[in-house]
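Standup, Tuesday
Yesterday: got the pipeline producing structure tokens again.
Today: sanity-check two examples.
Blockers: none.

Example 1:
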Amino acid sequence: MADEQGAPAGAAGAQPAAGEAAQPKLVLLNQYVRDLSFENPRAPASLADGEGRPQVEVQVQIETRRDESNGRFEVALKINATGKRAGGVGFVVELDYRGLFEVGGFPQNVLPQVLLVECPRLLFPFARRIVADAVRDGGFPPLFLDPIDFLTLYRQRLQQELAAQQAKAGQPTQGTA
């Protein structure tokens, strides 16, 4: 058996051979709550059994930021949910949940999709649990958010950006199928 020198292919720290492309890498280094707010403005009246289950409106926003000092990306998943009943607002929960990611080896044109689709997809289950617990701890039934299609949100964002660019340039916008 021949003695192999160097790191095996694909080992951590191994450099790609000449002509080989670097393997794409997406690593979640850390995740954390940056801000969490729960409001129950009409308590204890809002907790009365006679008011029924609240109607919930949920808004989701995703933001990314690159740390130039180390090349890592911070991705923010912001979730705002408002529960309304006949008597008014029952609760408001706002969560700013973030992850610190090491991303590399992706083509530049794919990087926005990785940051705005794959990174939030990794963060969502944890953010979902935090929202459910906060609402439950506020005296309401837990709010189990439906899964979010981050790819569709990304595509909608691209369409909005394109429409804004065309409006700025004075061009008519075109719908896509």
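Example 2:
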Amino acid sequence: MIMIDNLRFRTLAVSELRIPPGTTAVIGPNGSGKTTFLKLLAGIHLPESGTMTIDGRLPRETETGWVDEFPDRNILFCTAFDEIASSLRFRFLPCREITERSKSVMKLAGISHLMTRPIRELSGGEKVLVAVAAALVLHPEVLVLDEYDSHLDGDRVSQIGEFIRKSGVRYVIHSTQDTESAARADRVIFFRNGTISCTGTPETVFPQLEDTLYFPLSWRCRA
């Protein structure tokens, strides 16, 4: 369980929040605190006050994968394989293990054919797949994605979603502007003005947003 109590950082304030294992979608207007919340969860920022724990450990004590909205901000190396293998190399794992684990995650992602391709030649969707594979190669307990789907078409989003599901990561927390994607999550958190306006299952949250642009179109048509 992810547990948050009286968390404050700059303009963000979360009095109490519990996030069970599964997929959680974070939605809300631009500037509402979504990215700040995700960076706290990933351990990129430290709270000014309050606590955030993941199964009893601080975020920086937890194996966490992070994927930025813009894939080029994630990538440091010249080829897809080197990017995915980099975190394993930084931990000085045996060469054979690095190769096996990197190839395995690339196969799971369906990008084995990109192994030696220069990053500069990849499409935006391929770069996101590489970034997600690099985040998952360490078998993190938490995968945090900041609007990774904002520049992708539906087919590519479905491909990446299937890859993440197959990985078996315990917690997936992703911010998105796609309310249809959010409606498929196990849990939804809606931010407004630096605080959580409502949270719960999609069936609990979206009826509260029926008069807003955050109400999924498929739900509106169904209604």
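Quick observation on example 2: The beta strands are 2-9, 12-19, 22-27, 49-54, 64-67, 142-146, 171-175, 187-192, 195-200. The helical segments are 34-41, 80-90, 95-109, 124-136, 154-167, 179-183, 202-205, 217-222.
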